[in-house]
Protein: ABC transporter ATP-binding protein
Amino acid sequence: MRDLKIRIGEREILHGINLDLIPGQITGLAGESGSGKSITGLAMLRLLPKNAKTEGSITFEGRDLLALPERDMGRIRGQHVGMVFQDPTASLHPMLTIERQLTDHLRAHTGVSKKEARERALDVLRKVRVPLPETALKKYPHQFSGGQLQRIAIAVAIICEPRILIADEPTTALDVTVQAGVLRLLRQLCDDLGLAVLLITHDLGVMSSLADRIAVLRQGEIVEEGTRYDVLRNPQHEYTRALIDALPSHERAGADLESAESAAPVEEISKEVGNE
Ligand SMILES: Nc1ncnc2c1ncn2[C@@H]1O[C@H](COP(=O)(O)OP(=O)(O)OP(=O)(O)O)[C@@H](O)[C@H]1O
Structure:
């Protein structure tokens, strides 16, 4: 994003931000409520309210998304950029089986056969570590817990093998005991699939355990951007220091940066999933 400005009605919400997403890295966008984090994510998919006006550019693989015809943008949205939200039910249809949700989405964008779509659906459920994928395909969203459902929403978001995944407060609505498992899953998908992840959260604790780079948004401006280490250990802006000071002390201590490679081994993740 370069010099991205967004105005909704009379109000300018983003005042010209620059942000890069890098394959295989998690870029965290932090900031308090109302600072413009979600609007930044939605702008990438051109899902802003009708009365929004956008200036600047969002370049993806050489093309400016803000200038694309709506038809091409539809393809980018479904296929190249996936998004998950705080509430997983927002991206799932309550009346359709998990199989339909995964395969309809895949077939609409790739035209693969029914049989192949089912194989891909099973495969992606394994990737997000939903237990008993064959059985899970036959179930409906209400038959899953919140943590499992967020994994399924992530599966829908990645089944078309996007290059970018936008995760807007992906664990905020989850029970604390299952948050860590979903965060580790995001880390692992980012590493294994080379996804460029935009992690949007007000929670600097989440950021400190997961993001490779952190951008701090305040009232529509990025006031600080850098590696996790630099931003958390040597914050330059008073606002970032205030956010860090607001963290519980154990999380502040944890901000010392276990490396990205230190995601939990698979067995440990499987155990966590069992608990969900
Ligand atoms: N549809 C809309 N119409 C008008 N203003 C909006 C709309 N959506 C968001 N805004 C405004 O844009 C600003 C940024 O909102 P945004 O949702 O991006 O904040 P945020 O940083 O994601 O906060 P939160 O964590 O509370 O979601 C807020 O002041 C909000 O009131």
